[in-house]
Amino acid sequence: MKIKNTLIKGIVFSLVIIFSLPATSQVRFGVNARVGLNNPSFNSDALNVDNLTDYAIGPSLQIMLPVPIIDLGIEASLLYQNSRMNIQNLEGTSTTSEEISNQYLMLPINAKIFFGKIPLVPIHFYAAAGPYFGYLINGDKINPGNAAEDIEAKKFEAGANIGAGIEVFKLVQVGVNYGVKLTDNYGTDKPNWNDPLNGKSSSWTLNASIYF
To answer: What is the mean pLDDT of residues 117-137?
Structure first.
């Protein structure tokens, strides 16, 4: 409950900051899409977990602030994310793999600095960093076989990310992000299940955005 309240407060605080920005700020709307680049595997005596490629897509908002000298902005997106993994239970009578899929609504909020404009070429570089919050909207249950209840993903997720990329024609942005989770996706009292299920604590993603 404490983590849930902290995440809700963080989301509300971030939204208050965005909507309290001065009217002179430049607002752009667009679409953001992401795909995972690393798919690590984690094993224990009881479980094999092979993470599959994640993807996310949704609307995005970029606000450029009236700050002198530097091009500073804030970007917020509301993304539908599908996270998948193959799970093989080594404790049950059957060792066949099962694909588990969890769908989230993700809210990444980043501060972005644009710099390094190339003369005569419509290209800018940018760096970005900020928190993200996630809410589970649908998830598959995992049946450990010898447990009283199925294991489900937690409702809330939070983390932080940092990234860099380029902007072309002030329209298309392409970059790479490195994200670190600050919460576990699963909670179970079985250590040989808990460690593989929560092993993917960081991720690399390829991002692409179009702003109008």
So the answer is: 92
